[in-house]
Predict the 3D structure of the following.
Amino acid sequence: MYLVRLVMVMGVAFSVSMSASHSAVAQSKSSEVAATKQWNHNIGDWVVACSQDAEAKKTCVLSQSLSNASTRQTLAALSFSKGATDKLQATLRSPLGVSLAEGVQMTVEGQAPFAVAYRTCLTIGCFGGFEVNPALLANLRKAGKISIAIQTPQNQALNLNFSMVGFPKAFDMYVQEAGK
């Protein structure tokens, strides 16, 4: 389930094509994929992405990705979704080549920075997460930006900013979509 959300959060789209020579098992799996409905809402600098599988189970994620303008390579992504405990969770994806021991320092505009520890690294980046409590959510709704500070193993700073333009409306849409 975590990898399904991870793929959706990163905006990875895929398609399945079959030939007549595929086995019945492959046909069954591709039918399940084909039955998945996906839709997005772009609000400000945020995207609410939802999918619904053949059993009508819906998953939604609120996210923003930061990309290199010239290469279009994703540098970082921040997403919000309900975890298995039904509590709001944030997941941060940072690039590979970071100091794992240092973690990430995250600052919501106007608030004190807090540490986000890395949980794992995959081929697309390193991931950390944290629970979003009501006080943090209130601060996110008022903020103009979220800043993250990452260290490379060579102690070089990498500072990135997520825009909060549209976040309050996008979060409301996420709650509406996730609750349906």
